[in-house]
Amino acid sequence: MNVALPMFRETTGAVMVERASARLVRISLTDRCDMACVYCRPAERSAYLPAEERLTVAEWESVLRGLRAEGVRRVRITGGEPLLHRDVVEVVRRVAALDMDDLAMTTNASRLEALAAPLRAAGLQRLTVSIDSLDPARFASITRGGELPAVLAGLDAALAQGFEEVKTNTVVLRGINDDELPALVRWAWSLGVTPRFIEVMGVGEGGNIWRERLVSRDEMIATLGGLVVAGDGARDDDRGPARYLRAADGSGRRVGFITGSTDTYCAGCDRLRVTSDGTVRPCLATEEGVELTEEGKAGVPGAVAATLREAWEMKPDASWKGCTEVTARAVSMLKTGG
Ligand code: SAM
């Protein structure tokens, strides 16, 4: 089934910010993942980077130190699945010691039950848990084998640790999980968690299904009925592209929307990505990037600056259509970090 694509909108002037340099980096700690979501990666679990090409813990520390010296203040650890990295807690501890303004992680939570406490103790501040369905069979089908009970146990463990903020990410897929939005909102709110809905993007495997499966933000809001006050919503300062609508009941609870397919948030984007093999990427929607030098990975003072500048200069201008660009399809979400 092919649905009519919603009109593409330019990001409004209200969210344009002066882009001087990178403030946020997303690091793909590992390209390995224990799930294979239908919109993210192929079913077969192969073609991972050889171990010797992945950055070591010491190299991550050096690179992050270098990035901080150049003005980066916010770090999100993602992947692949970051909790599969055997030294994830140590990486968090070392990044936390750099005194960033924000240290967050996006995870599928399959291993969070055991790791929530050590991660919190190591200095992780905020968590986003990806969860596309509350139905175990549907969850297993979307993730090609993911186990919902383990994810829910991980989320519970995280909530017990008092992270500064816990959010969920749900990629909304037409005819697959788009009937669950109100249930997901009520469930998340009941836990004190902020639910976020993501338009499926044509990145990686998403390139095969996004036109057929895309549910636009406007449709999502209609599906939510009276749960939220409709409108453009507002972004959190310095916190990525999601725009939040408030609950209609006046409780102050919110629902976030990430519109990588019907809108662009490229204008004002202050993010760079570092892949698990040490390439600095200007944008999720392109495989282009700049490899970190051996000096940068070894922590030679000032050595990361040139790489950072070069990658920053590769940032597309505001005419770039982000994840709807044809280059997006060739991107590996695992390697680049979603
Ligand atoms: N493994 C971790 C997880 O599941 O959260 C972190 C990596 S995953 C690539 C990060 C986020 O990207 C997840 O919330 C996932 O749903 C989202 N994602 C992956 N491919 C996507 C696509 N084609 N369109 C929209 N979101 C996507």
Main features:
338 residues, 11 helices, 17% strand, TIM Barrel, alpha/beta, 12-stranded mixed sheet, binds S-adenosylmethionine
Descriptive notes:
- The protein is built from 11 helices and 12 strands.
- It is an alpha/beta fold and 338 residues long.
- A hairpin with a 7-residue loop joins strand 8 (243-246) and strand 9 (254-258).
- The protein is globular and about 55 Å long.
- S-adenosylmethionine (SAM) binds at residues 33, 39-40, 78-79, 81, 106-108, 130, 169, 171, 198, 200-201, 203-204, 206, 333, 338.
Short synopsis of the structure:
This protein is α/β, with parallel strands linked by helices and 338 residues long. It is built from eleven helices and twelve strands. It starts with 23 loop residues before the first strand and ends with a helix.
* Ligand kinds: S-adenosylmethionine
Stated plainly, the CATH topology is called TIM Barrel
Using the coordinates above, name the CATH class: Alpha Beta
Say what oligomer this is. Answer: single chain
Tally of discrete structural domains: 1
Structural class, please? alpha/beta
How is the topology of this model organized?
Layout: E1 24-30, H1 57-69, E2 74-79, H2 88-96, E3 102-107, H3 112-122, E4 126-130, H4 136-143, H5 148-160, E5 165-172, H6 181-190, E6 194-199, H7 206-213, H8 217-223, E7 234-235, E8 243-246, E9 254-258, E10 271-274, E11 279-281, E12 290-291, H9 294-298, H10 303-313, H11 333-336
Parallel strand pairs: 1-2, 1-10, 2-3, 3-4, 4-5, 5-6, 6-9
Antiparallel strand pairs: 7-8, 8-9, 10-11, 11-12
This protein binds S-adenosylmethionine.
S-adenosylmethionine binds next to β2, β3 and β5.
